[in-house]
């Protein structure tokens, strides 16, 4: 959604001037003022999601930078105006206009801006401040004698590489006694946690250099003593766990800046690989950004305990927003690439180089025993044997008996099967499962999850226990059984939260596929925690889906939308098109013509030579090509004008042929001459008749470049054939029904440049997508026809499903397929543009590099649908290269398509319609909740659609191509999610039972 900057200027008509002295006097809880862009605001009554202490830290100070780091919604700016006191003395009337510009793209990573400050003495693992991250940054320096541990860890990468690490540790074993003694007297949890992490790294690096003993890794007594002691003191296992290598293993480079990838580095490492750094650092970012998830669940289970429906609704809304943020904006960081380094975490390097250090293992702790009574008995027997051997020289040799006793004593040493550091030890998803009532149907996997919890900090385990006692699912089901009127609203939001958890798990499954299954070459590979990773995650996905609450009758409301929302005629997008325009955009044919494209044979005889040139083009354009010579020879036999083209279909086919011939001419090697004048004149004439630019465009390549292969069609049953095509009496020869996934394989291009499978694959994918836009158009019509909230919500649900159908078409073509999806076409997309690009025109006026332009052509190869969906959902297109190309490409598209988009843009977006209700009492909280959820589900699905477009680009080009432009596009889409409940709570007096909902949009 775009905004007018002037409408958000906060410094107009400010009469009161505030002195510096007066500002400095309002710095307490009773009266808290702060400065933003030269204006003074009274924020005393504002409920900040990070706690009021965050505001007190800025009281009497300039908070402009903190405020503008978060890109706020329009409602937030309106609310800010209400807190305006006046202008600070000495400030100009319009200071820093750019600072107070309209809200723009939100930052994908908040950097911890929503974290709460820790209280004095607050427990390290309190979940109040940063979710499951410690409330204070991990200690970098430790008091003596723990300096020995930090020294040894600093030497791990080099000493492991040259094989000297175990010798290095052994050379300092006399000093470990001091460390063990210090652990016994240490009371600081911060210190003990850091010590546990250091022991984990030292211990795993040490045993990595040793040969196994009886299928176990032996930990020498001097090292085991302190490791076991600190583990017992913290209630954790003596191994390297998730808290050791992620939660408590980072430092900020700039202590005053946020928790962002660029400002974090690991404290402990096994290697010097960027990949190790990025892998664990990504998890730190995920934990930081997921603090909103933890806070929402805390409020949610409190609401269940209090039996408060409204507080639960608020918590579910917040949880859905927070989960969406993590799943959409954070998990993808793992796959980031650098300009020079390529993948920042290369899967093969992860799997083979540093994963072994954090994998499951069996430890043998020398000098420590499991059964003290049995040990005492064995030692007593051994002592007796040794005494007898010395006292009675004539006894038979007792050596074998002595060896047996010593082996028995050795076998009593502590032997533990320990899990490796695993993402399953993070409490984020277990907490979601507990709150949403996701149960594990497999007893074996259930036991594994319980075991992983033993590796969590005790505070995290305690929170999980509390959440399990107040499950939202059970509470909502009970409300439904009682016939509560609010039950279905809660069901909607509950199911939305479950879907966001599914999003998280599907993305996590893609982690496993890339970083475990593919490098291992086996689908049975285990994760670092020792679980059968693929089976475990698939089972958990199935169990998560089962937690969804089935639909009863959909909620109903009498509440109308604002009069301005429904005052347009229902037929706005179904009329006002010429009857003979077969490019009219409808819910039946989408962006394809209303009838199948005209065959070449349908053109007048004087166009036969043009057809022949197109048939010769693929072979004649192969360098060094002869195509230009063929064109010159054919010139006398080519049409002199378009007079013989009697209808629009003929003109379309003629222009398509001409576009290919002209593209072939320009692609030919060694031809310096300009396009022959007669050919240029003919091309301009037919393009002018169709009101399109004289250049090869999407219509020529895709929309009017297809046919249904009769031989392939014969394989389908009658119902599938009817899906492919049907005939009807009327103006046109035939009208095709919407082409679905099952029909995609029967679609073939009419004209080709390369004559390879990849060219056919690209064409059929985009023809099928263009046809599928019909479902999107039908849903858009429903959105604009809606007369009340019920109809609007249902229309947006239909829009979500229509966009999802487009996503699935990409899957069927092998783009972004989920793990376990059916087989995809056997094509190599990267080869296509290596050969096709020379036929495509360059747009110098766009100031886009040739490489980026090729990638953008692929990204935008679906036509006006991208602009349509973005406008309907109120998404700002921006001014990046992708947006500029979309507008430029319109001149290559049929007039009817441009007219449709123009009409659509003349309507207020659905987002703006819904936002008009924020801050008013026209709609209830439940109605706002339904609208917010339906709209945000569309946004999430649209982001999924555009992600498939990006993945298509990545499959055809270098993954870094177009990345900076795609990031801007992705941010525009992500930031379009609504926060109606949050904004209403901030702008109007809340319902008496309504919970306070923190927002990521808070400075």
Automatic annotation (TrEMBL):
Cytochrome b5 heme-binding domain residues: 15-89
Keywords: Heme, Iron, Metal-binding
Record-linked InterPro entries: Cyt_B5-like_heme/steroid-bd, Cyt_B5-like_heme/steroid_sf, Indolamine_dOase, Trp/Indoleamine_2_3_dOase-like
Amino-acid positions noted as binding heme b in the UniProt annotation, renumbered to this chain: 508
SUPFAM superfamilies named among the record's database cross-references: Cytochrome b5-like heme/steroid binding domain, Indolic compounds 2,3-dioxygenase-like
GO MF annotation: an example: heme binding
Domain of life: Eukaryota
The UniProt record lists the keyword Iron: yes
Pfam families for the chain: Cyt-b5, IDO
One of the GO BP terms on file: L-tryptophan catabolic process to kynurenine
Family the UniProt entry places it in: Belongs to the indoleamine 2,3-dioxygenase family.
Name of the featured protein: Cytochrome b5 heme-binding domain-containing protein
Biological classification of the source: Eukaryota, Haptista, Haptophyta, Prymnesiophyceae, Isochrysidales
């Amino acid at each position: 959604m775009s905004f007018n900057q002037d409408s958000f200027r906060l410094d107009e008509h400010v009469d009161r001037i505030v002195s510096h002295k007066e500002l400095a006097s309002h710095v307490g809880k009773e009266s808290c003022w702060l400065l933003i862009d030269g204006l003074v605001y009274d924020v005393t009554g504002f409920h900040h999601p990070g706690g009021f202490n965050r505001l007190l830290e800025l009281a009497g100070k300039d908070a402009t930078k903190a405020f503008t780091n978060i890109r706020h919604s329009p409602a937030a700016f309106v609310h800010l105006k209400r807190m305006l006191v006046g202008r600070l003395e000495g400030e100009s009337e319009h200071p820093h206009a750019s600072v107070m510009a309209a809200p723009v793209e939100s930052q994908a990573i908040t950097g911890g801006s929503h974290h709460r400050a820790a209280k004095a003495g607050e427990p390290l693992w309190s979940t109040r401040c940063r979710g499951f991250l410690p409330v204070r940054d991990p200690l970098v320096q430790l008091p003596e004698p723990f300096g020995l541990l930090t020294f040894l860890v600093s030497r791990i990468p080099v000493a492991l590489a040259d094989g000297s690490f175990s010798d290095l540790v052994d050379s300092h074993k006399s000093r470990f006694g001091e460390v063990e003694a210090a652990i016994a007297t240490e009371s600081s949890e911060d210190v003990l946690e850091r010590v546990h992490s250091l022991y984990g790294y030292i211990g795993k690096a040490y045993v990595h250099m040793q040969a196994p003993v009886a299928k176990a890794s032996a930990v020498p007594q001097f090292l085991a003593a302190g490791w076991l002691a600190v583990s017992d003191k913290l209630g954790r296992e003596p191994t390297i766990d998730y808290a050791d290598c992620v939660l408590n293993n980072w430092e900020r480079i700039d202590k005053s800046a946020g928790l962002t990838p660029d400002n974090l580095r690991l404290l402990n490492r096994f290697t010097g690989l960027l990949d190790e750094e990025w892998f664990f650092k990504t998890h730190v970012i995920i934990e930081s950004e997921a603090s909103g998830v933890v806070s929402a669940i805390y409020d949610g289970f409190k609401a269940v305990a209090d039996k408060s429906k409204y507080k639960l609704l608020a918590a579910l809304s917040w949880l859905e927003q927070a989960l969406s943020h993590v799943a959409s904006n954070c998990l993808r960081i793992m796959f980031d690439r650098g300009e020079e380094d390529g993948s920042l975490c290369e899967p093969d390097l992860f799997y083979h180089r540093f994963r072994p250090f954090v994998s499951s293992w069996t430890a043998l702790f020398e000098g420590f025993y499991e059964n003290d009574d049995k040990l005492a008995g064995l030692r007593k027997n051994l002592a007796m044997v040794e005494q007898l051997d010395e006292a009675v020289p004539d006894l038979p040799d007792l050596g074998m008996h002595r060896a047996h006793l010593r082996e028995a004593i050795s076998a009593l040493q502590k032997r533990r099967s320990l899990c490796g550091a695993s993402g399953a030890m993070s409490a984020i998803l277990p907490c979601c499962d507990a709150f949403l009532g996701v149960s594990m149907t497999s007893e074996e996997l259930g036991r594994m999850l319980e075991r992983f919890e033993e590796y969590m900090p005790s505070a995290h385990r305690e929170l999980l226990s509390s959440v399990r006692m107040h499950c939202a699912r059970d509470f909502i089901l009970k409300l439904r059984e009682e016939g509560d009127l609010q039950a279905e609203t809660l069901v909607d939001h509950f199911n939305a939260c479950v879907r966001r958890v599914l999003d998280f798990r599907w993305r996590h499954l893609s982690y496993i596929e890339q970083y475990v299954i593919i490098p291992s070459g086996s689908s049975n590979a285990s994760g670092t925690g020792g679980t059968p990773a693929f089976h475990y995650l698939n089972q958990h996905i199935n169990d998560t889906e089962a937690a969804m609450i089935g639909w009863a009758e959909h909620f109903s409301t009498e509440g109308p939308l604002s009069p301005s929302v429904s005052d347009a005629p229902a037929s706005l997008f179904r009329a006002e098109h010429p009857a003979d325009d077969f490019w009219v955009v409808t819910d039946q044919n989408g962006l394809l013509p209303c009838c199948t494209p005209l065959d070449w044979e349908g053109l007048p005889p004087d166009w036969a030579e043009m057809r022949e040139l197109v048939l010769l083009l693929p072979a004649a354009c192969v360098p060094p090509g002869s195509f230009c010579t063929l064109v010159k020879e054919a010139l006398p036999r080519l049409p002199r004008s378009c007079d013989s083209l009697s209808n629009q279909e003929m003109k379309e086919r003629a222009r398509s042929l001409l576009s290919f011939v002209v593209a072939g001419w320009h692609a030919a090697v060694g031809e310096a001459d300009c396009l022959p004048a007669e050919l240029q004149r003919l091309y301009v004439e037919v393009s002018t008749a169709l009101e399109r630019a004289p250049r090869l465009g999407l219509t020529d390549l895709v929309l009017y470049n297809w046919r249904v292969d009769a031989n392939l069609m014969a394989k389908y049953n009658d119902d599938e054939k009817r899906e492919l095509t049907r005939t009807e009496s009327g103006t046109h020869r035939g009208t095709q029904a919407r082409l679905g996934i099952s029909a995609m394989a029967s679609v073939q291009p009419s004209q080709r440049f390369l004559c390879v499978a990849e060219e056919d694959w690209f064409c059929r994918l985009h023809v099928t997508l263009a046809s599928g836009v019909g479902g999107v158009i039908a849903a858009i019509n429903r959105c604009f026809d809606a007369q009340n909230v019920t109809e609007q919500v249902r229309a947006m649900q239909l829009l979500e499903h229509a966009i999802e159908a487009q996503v699935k078409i990409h899957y069927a073509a092998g783009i972004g397929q989920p793990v376990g999806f059916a087989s995809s076409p056997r094509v190599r997309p990267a080869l296509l543009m290596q050969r096709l690009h020379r036929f495509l025109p360059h747009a110098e006026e766009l100031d886009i590099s040739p490489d980026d332009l090729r990638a953008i052509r692929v990204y935008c190869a679906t036509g006006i649908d991208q602009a349509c969906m973005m406008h309907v959902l109120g998404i700002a297109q921006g001014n990046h290269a992708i947006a500029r190309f979309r507008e430029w490409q319109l001149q290559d598209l049929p007039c009817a398509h441009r007219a449709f988009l123009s009409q659509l843009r003349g309507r207020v977006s659905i987002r703006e319609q819904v936002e008009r209700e924020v801050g008013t009492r026209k709609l209830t909280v439940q109605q706002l909740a339904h609208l917010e959820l339906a709209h945000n589900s569309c946004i999430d699905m649209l982001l999924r659609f555009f992600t498939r477009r990006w993945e298509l680009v990545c499959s055809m080009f270098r993954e870094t191509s177009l990345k900076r432009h795609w990031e801007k596009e992705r941010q525009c889409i992500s930031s379009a999610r609504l926060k109606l409940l949050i904004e209403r709570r901030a702008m109007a007096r809340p319902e008496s039972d309504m919970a306070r909902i923190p927002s990521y949009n808070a400075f």
